[in-house]
Specification:
Oligomer: single chain
Structural class: alpha+beta
Order of helices and strands: EHEEEHEHEEHHHHHHHHHHHHHHHHH
Number of domains: 3
Shape: elongated
Length: 428
């Protein structure tokens, strides 16, 4: 198994062979574009640059330039825990990503002519999605690239090129590329979003005309404008595009003007945590019935906790400050004295309802280290047995009833139902 580590990108100084490197001597070596290309793409090096134009298509002549960047791919059995030390001691192979450029000395090519450039099929090139792009004109040359959409966009910025293929159309296309790890879309989504409202017509066109065009909607997560929100609201109204709209709407910052959509997400249980966060942040007290429904029928303990806190907040009786702070400071590795102090805070608080929720969390908490987990679980159970029994039983009964309805949660329901049993107490 190969493991690519972009954060460990390495720039490899290469000595090109005579067969692949043109003569760099000549009048053009001091041209402005030569200096610009040397620093245009951080992390890349110039593997090849013509001293004089070597490419001819009809009456057009162009310089060929090749940039490359080395990248380590680690050989792994798939079972490693990746740490800095692991990387230092793991075998790797070095692979490259290339940007090929053709800089024409006259006018732009026709579409037929650009198809005749003849890019190099690089052996072992990293498998990123690449395409031929007319990057535009600058420094007296017309630039074409065979590169990833991300790299050509950065190149156009660095070289300050004007014209060429529609940049926003290319960035929208990038979100539709189906490649490993969605690397093309992931790398370009913020580049499209920085266009703001200018990107919206391109996204609309993709959604309307492309089979997988709905993937472009994700860029709207990072366009925080009234126009973007209005479009997301219209997408949410359609069954075909609702899920894509949800994925965009749940991103921070949450949108106060999308209140109807957040409340509907709660109603449909499409999402729970982000809509409840919006309800608290924007003080939507009319959302209490929906949040109470989540509280009474949680599908996980996380839903139960978050709905409890949101409900209490909107009821103007937030979780007691001493409990909130004690929970925030709690550490499973704390000393016995600190455990006792934490226990004392919960048992002495007048907010027994919140104390019960926190204690159940401790009693049910998982963890990778068995001794630490069991110690926390014992603390939670001990606190529960000293809190008002009727209140504790009511909360546990609510959770058990809800979890038993879901096959995946039945083991949790069984464990919850035994928390206060005499047999469980004897094992402590």
């Amino acid at each position: 198994m190969l493991r690519t580590v972009p954060s460990l990108l390495v720039s490899i100084l290469a000595v090109a062979t005579m067969a692949r490197t043109a003569d760099l001597r000549g009048d053009d070596q001091d041209a402005p574009w030569v200096k610009a290309i040397a620093t245009a793409m951080p992390g890349y090096e110039i593997e090849h640059r013509d001293g004089q134009p070597s490419l001819s298509i009809g009456t057009h002549h162009a310089y060929r330039i090749v940039l490359r960047k080395g990248e380590k791919e680690y050989l792994s059995d798939g079972q490693r825990q990746w740490t800095a030390a692991t990387y230092d001691n793991t075998p790797f192979v070095l692979r490259y990503r290339h940007i090929e450029l053709a800089a024409f000395t006259d006018t732009a090519l026709t579409s037929n002519e650009s198809g005749k450039i003849g890019w190099q099929p690089w052996k072992d090139d990293l498998p990123y999605f690449k395409k031929t792009v007319h990057c535009g004109r600058g420094m007296g040359l017309d630039w074409y690239a065979n590169a990833t959409i991300y790299d050509q966009e950065l190149l156009r910025d660095h070289l300050k090129l004007a014209g060429g293929d529609d940049r926003l159309a290319l960035l929208t296309e990038s979100l539709l590329v189906d490649d490993k790890g969605t690397s093309t879309g992931t790398s370009c989504v913020h580049l499209l979003a920085r266009a703001g409202d200018r990107a919206i017509p391109y996204i609309k066109k993709a959604v309307a005309k492309q089979e997988n065009g709905v993937k472009a909607v994700y860029a709207l997560a990072f366009i925080q404008t009234p126009a973007a929100t209005e479009y997301l609201q219209s997408l949410y109204a359609s069954d075909a595009t609702r899920n894509a709209a949800v994925d965009a709407l749940i991103h921070e910052p949450l949108r106060e003007s999308a209140k109807d959509q957040y409340l509907d997400m709660l109603r449909r249980r499409l999402r729970v945590f982000e809509p409840m966060q919006a309800c608290v942040r924007f003080q939507w007290k009319d959302a209490l019935p929906l949040i109470s429904e989540v509280y009474l029928r949680p599908q996980s303990f996380g839903e139960f906790e978050r709905s409890f806190e949101a409900k209490r907040h909107l009821e103007d009786r937030p979780v007691a400050e001493e409990i909130r702070k004690a929970r925030q400071d709690f550490s499973s590795s704390a000393s016995r004295k600190e455990y006792d102090r934490f226990k004392e805070v919960l048992l002495n608080s007048t907010d027994s309802e919140s104390a019960i929720v926190v204690a159940i969390d401790l009693a049910m908490r998982g963890g990778k280290i068995p001794d630490g987990r069991e110690r926390v679980n014992r603390l939670g159970r001990d606190i529960l047995r000293q809190l008002p029994r009727k209140q504790v039983e009511e909360v546990i009964s609510l959770l058990v009833h809800s979890f038993e309805a879901m096959p995946s949660m039945r083991p949790t329901a069984k464990t919850l139902s035994e928390i206060l049993s005499p047999q469980e107490q004897k094992t402590q």
